[in-house]
Amino acid sequence: MNTAKADFPVDTITPTVERIAEECLSAMDTIARAAAEKASSRFVDAGTVMSSFNSLTAVDAARNLSQVQEIERKAGHELAREPLIARVKVRSESGVEKTYYFARNFTVSAPGISLTSYNSGAPIGRLAALDVGDGFQLPGGKWVEVVEKGTYNPTSRGGEWDGIDNRITHEGFDMVAVPSLRAAGRAGLLGSTAIDDPFADIDEPLPWIAPQRTALTGVGLRDQSVMNKVQDEIFRLPIDKQVMLEGPPGTGKTTTLIKRLSQKLTLTPEREEDMRAVTEHQLAGDHQTSWIMFSPTALLEHYLREAFARDNVPASQDRIQTWANFRNGLATRVLGILRSGKRTSGFLREDSAQYLSALALENQPEFYADFDAFQRSVYIQEIEAAINLLRQSGEEVLVNIARKLADRVRETASILAIYLEVDAVSPELREWTTKARADIVDTVDRRIEVIARLRGRQSITELSQLVAKIDAMTNEDDEDEEDTLEPETAPTSTRDRMYKVLRASIRAMAIAAWTKRAVSRSSKYKPVIEWLGAEAVGQAELERLGRIYMLISAVSMVSLTTRNYFSRLPQRYRAFRKNADSRWFQPEAAEATKVTGDELDLLVAVHLDAASELLGSSRVRANLTQGNLQVLAPLVKEFRNQVVVDEATDFSPLQLRAMACLATPGIRSFFACGDFNQRLTRYGVSRRDAFDWAVRGLEFHRVEVAYRQSKELRSFANEVVKLSGGDLLETTIEGPRIAEGYAPVVHVSKSGSAGQSRWIASRIVEIDSIHTELPSIAVFVPREDLVVPVADELRQALQDTNVEVMPCLGGQVLGLDRHVRVFAVEHIKGLEFEAAFFHSLNDLAVNEPDLFDKYLYVGATRAATFLGLACDGRLPRLLEQATQGMADRWSVAN
User: Fold this and answer.
1) What order of strands is seen across the sheet that includes strand 745-749?
2) Is the separation of the CB atoms in 873 and 748 below 8 Å?
3) Which end of the chain is least crowded, N or C, by CB within 10 Å?
């Protein structure tokens, strides 16, 4: 949009602004009254309405009625506080004009008012994002042209409505700012001057001014109630899209993300495509709560929650999370990759060491492909070995099944295809196994009874003590355990536990006899085998039992292929780490018993990738209670109908692949935003091709209208990108930012940290001198241990002012808006301030040589108007080039 031109005649603008103000105030009052009436309405009790319904349908009908009434109540309360956010007048080709009003989230029936929810996704809502002069096709097919547009901030004062800091554009003039609708209305001007005053016609104050930017006083995300045309088009894309939204800082990427998620939470008949994608999918959970947003920092989580609240979206800690917190919980509770209090198999987490090589971390797609190929090869070999055993079994049923499966398994590497092949023969396998197991259990139990009678009570007591020790032991790699088609019932008595252990011990003896090898010394059943003695079961009987046990195990290996794929993933990774190409690992990795966070990302991504593939099949979804698929059941509730990622370039390709796999199969709604120039993590995604690998079907979109920065600061940030070899994204600076701003200032101290702090304090006083209220100011230091010392130095330097300084350790202390905040530079993503200062830039260049240009760029783009750069000794080379000709103060007071 353009700013109002200075030579526009007042009599062209003022009457129009006055008319629009009166119409808006009247609409606010009408909508607010209707909303208040709706909010205070007495809603019908669901039980009363449903009393005559069929009892089988009454519960769902009552729940639906309750939800509808709750939405109506919420709509009433919100619209009573904020009746509208935009007004658009259109004209048809025949000259007919119509005015549309737009609320944020809800609508209400108000006499004489055409009100639409902007966030609902109704097609007419796009009108609010268009510019004057744009054409639009109404839902009925008629084309209209936008001739007036305004955005408003309603407020109720003394029982009367007003709109403050409004923006209005008209076909006769460019955008103007209207500080107060009530002051602009004709009624507000009548009688304000004497009738006989000859200067009355020219002495009245103008109801409008040229648009001016308001200084930022807080650090949260700004409220952009109506988006521009490009943002609007993106946020209205269908829900089943995979989107990466690129753009420089301050272009509204996160705002677009939040608006999109908010809009998609409410399914309306106008968005038939979205409604069908969700309601017709078996795995779609409660849509209102089935979403998750990943944020790179805990500090940003707080501001994101505030932004969601403005769009009426409750955002609990379960909804907005850092990836590390979510991943650790998922790997422990659901995937079984990490150990927990109840499950001692799996890995422990290593948080202080790194087992992966730099090559693996820098080439994560290749590392993933190498491991996935290895582990799938091992998986196929295990299945083929089991099939081969069935083929040689001499059992006609098993031989025929083995012949059917052998070629088909060898021809595919698809887990889904293998499952479908095995599922087709599983009834026959189950029938054979049931008969064989019944025979073997009967034989073994009779032998156990004979042994117990011969041994006597004292020996049985000794056995019970051995069983108690075994129950307390864990051995995740114990090969004596038997795979079963169905989960075994947990023992409920001491006798049951003893029988279970004795059966397992005889099984170990039988398999050893059949395979002509001794029972492993590390077997937890070794003490019980010694208690039984070599003569407990005859050799011939042991060999017969061993053969059947091995066949049952082979049948189970085939029947439980899907379960084994997931449950044995940690074991296959251990084997990969011991045998893999040394280019992927540090030398100590081969003997390591823990996994690092990056390795955990790999395992979670592989697990979720396969699960997503399987659950994309309706046949799999219909059989989740089947023993072979029960491993997937706990994961179903972890899928989300919407997965969104803020500052996506801070996440690694492996992390993004895992996140994308969390999107409900069949819907696959994934929306991320970020800027490759803002990547502040060493192994965050840095190229489009890596992002394409992480998220299949990804579409890249770009926003280019900057709302935060002045022209001067935008130019400096672009210079940093060019000098560092980054991809420069051109931007258009929105409205009043074009004519305002100050060039950055730079200072090289000769008196260390304290000298830098004193210089920054002097610049803060400069800023304070031109503002009625101190705007938001941040000071960035290179390390966490400098936060408090620098805050103390600033506090000392500002002791003769009323300016307070707040050290924000770990980025967790939010402080008050009037405080100057001191952050370690690692916590700055996503925040915005009126002024930002770098302290000890040369230290940052030394500590983070690979990311220095990224930190400088991101820090510089946190500032809207003022940027100060301070260092000790000598400027880093990049800054020497970028700051040539810059002053060391603004002298704004002059």
Assistant:
1) 745-749, 863-872, 833-838, 777-781, 820-824, 805-807
2) yes
3) C
Identify the H or E element spanning 675: none
Do the strands 173-180 and 160-170 form a parallel or antiparallel pair, or are they unpaired? antiparallel
For residue range 485-498, list pLDDT tens digits in order. Answer: 554 566 778 888 88
pLDDT digits (tens, 9 = 90+) for 791-806: 999 999 999 998 999 9
Q: Which residues contact 87 (CB under 8 A, 6 or more apart)?
A: 20, 23, 24, 27, 99, 100, 101, 102, 148, 149, 150, 152
Taking 3-state DSSP, the helix, strand and coil percentages for the chain, each rounded to the nearest 5, stand at 50, 15, 35
Residue 778, number of CB atoms within 10 A of its CB:
24
Separation CA 662–CA 670 (nearest Å)? 9
φ/ψ region of 596 (left if φ > 0, alpha if ψ in -120 to 50, else beta) reads beta
Nearest-angstrom CA–CA distance, 549 and 436: 9
* Res 609: pLDDT: 95
Residue 204's closest CA among 214, 217, 194, 219?
A: 194
Rg (alpha carbons) of the chain, rounded to whole number: 35
The DSSP call for residue 102 is E
Q: What is the model's pTM? A: 0.83
Distances (CA, A) of 797 to 32, 283, 762, 794, 808: 50, 60, 8, 5, 18
90: left (phi over 0), alpha (psi -120 to 50) or beta: beta
Q: Name the token pair of 591.
A: 């003997």
**Helix 597-615 vs helix 323-333: angle between axes, to the nearest 10 degrees?**
70
Instruction: For residue 836, give the nearest of 692, 730, 716 by alpha carbon.
Output: 716
Q: Which two tokens stand for residue 75?
A: 């709509």
Helix (H, G, I), strand (E, B) or coil at 268: coil
